[in-house]
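DATA SHEET
Item: assembly model
Revision: 1
Owner: S.N.
Input lines:
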Amino acid sequence: MKKLNKVLAGVAAVALAAAAGGVSAETKIGMISTLSGGGAGLGIDVRDGFLLAIEQSGRDDIEVIVEDDQRKPDVAVRLADRMMQSDNVDIMTGLIFSNLAMAVVPSVTAQGTFYLSPNAGPSALAGERCHENYFNVAWQNDNVHEAAGAYATSIGYQSTFVMAPNYPAGIDAINGFKRMFEGEPANEVLTKLGQTDYASEIAQIRASDADSVFFFLPGGMGISFLKQYADSGVEIPLVGPAFSFDQTILAAVGKAALGVPNTAQWSPDLDNAANVAFVESFQEAYGRLPSMYASQGFDTAQLILSALEVAPVSDAEAFREALRAANFESTRGDFKFNTNHHPIQDYYVREVVEVDGVLTNKVLEASLSEHSDAYAADCKM
Amino acid sequence: MTLLILEQVLNGLQFGVMLFLMAAGLTLVFGVMGLINLAHGSLFMVGAFAAAAVAGATGSYALALIASAAAAAFAGVLIETLVIRRLYARDHLDQVLATFALILIFSEGTRMTFGSFPLYLDVPEMLAGPVSLPFGIQYPLFRLVLIGAGLAVAAALYLLVTRTRVGIQIQAGEADREMIAALGVNISVLYTLVFALGAGLAGLAGALVGTLQSVEVGMGEPVLITAFVVVVIGGIGSIQGALVGAILVGLVQTLGAFLLPIWSTAVFGSQDAGAILSSMLIYILMALVLLVRPKGLMGGAA
């Protein structure tokens, strides 16, 4: 089945490459994102946000080649090789999942191509293995969870039941939460990535004497957990990162998500000019509210555009400096890069609310301010 | 701890019963037609999406369930007459290729129709919330209903296969395809019927599982792999085997995922070994069963 998959993807890739052959552009951007299967909503929002910014810029000298990694590391690696070797892209971006980023990013940057991450921020790439050509425009994975840990502490929770899937970003999530949480985790449970039935974990939560539950379950995993948790009658309060409360899945979760506090670096109601314009134009272009992922895709494109104003990618030194300066209007307000090319930015606690029959998030309170990550000191570049 | 294990047994039973609904169709189609149908997971997805759409439009969960089985059965009849019928005489590689193509077509078709974002489908008001069981166990009512409904379907299927004319024909088809055609049974109608039955069950399972979990594109494939394990353990073509295999796999997987990390934390001080072992557990079980009974637990006749 895997072999066949490769053949089919290959055929599609050849067809696309042929179709793209006639266009000449000064800057070629290769975007590999998760556009099919579980988790597709995330990749689609990153893509749509990214393309919206490129379109608004009015530049016709930028070509974006979009490919679907199907959330499979081997597919992502093959697409990346092709983009670098035969499409000769200057910049790559788009990966959603950290395990795919770990498979792709090191080889991309080692070959002198720039990689700008619109989502995945594995700890391994923020510390010792950081690279001058790797920029993370979203966050280091731990960050959003650190904000959740700080929030749990501020509420006064003493013992939290901690749960995340067993993959790089899940481990980062637990570490991030515990870094800022001053209580004791009541229990730590690693679930399977892609798991959709949480009856067993919910039974453990019920049996524990935890006063709160921290969970990181992005995409469909979060939908399943929240619905099952609401139906289980367990009433221990939840807290989590925004990934299970995002616009892409809120409609599917339904009222089970109402009122749950969740942490993020962005919210649709953040009151800055760039964000107001972004939310409005995104809704107009696509007919739906943008998610956090869409804002990250939009910001990634804005960053590239701002750097291209200063220098072309062919002048790698100057282009890199221009990226580092991060001289663009971010949808999340103040934004700058740390020494390891990861953001220094503010985090918020949001709450799920219902506005005109649509579930969305609004800011409850500010959380960590001008927050960076714990790995920057290990990064020598 | 004992109570927790008891609750996990219920969870395992519920998972097993849902697996049975998937595996029953697979094993029938494989047993009667000798066909490997990878697109069975897509029919599961079709059922879930149909249920979510109908529940969204009418607000009735009962209608949604009927729609899920009907839509999946209809999709089953469609692909059987258009595509699968041409594959019976081919070897398994061709069948795998063609039905894999169907997976891609169904996934993209569903995305084009319903969009890329998961749909909303929740437990109906009447069945929502937990109930109190003996020993002070609080257990979601909906999961209990699933166990009951699954076992009822299993019983009905058993009666259908053993006590009705169609059932006898199905059994005869498993034993010798050419012979029952020679005896004047319209084999192509029988095939379509078996396929529709399997598809309808998969669709129903999709709706029930989708209610608990999330209704999204690609939801069928992980279940499909587990269902194949069930079919192999139970014995290809055997409905009873599918039921025993499904409940065995459900219990082993659920209890393994719960107990092994606890065990490895006690022995090695970390859950990693247990987590890794628990994700391999059903495949180890399959290997062991095949060692002892190469044709599966109830696969004597195949």
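QC remark: The mean pLDDT of chain B is 89.
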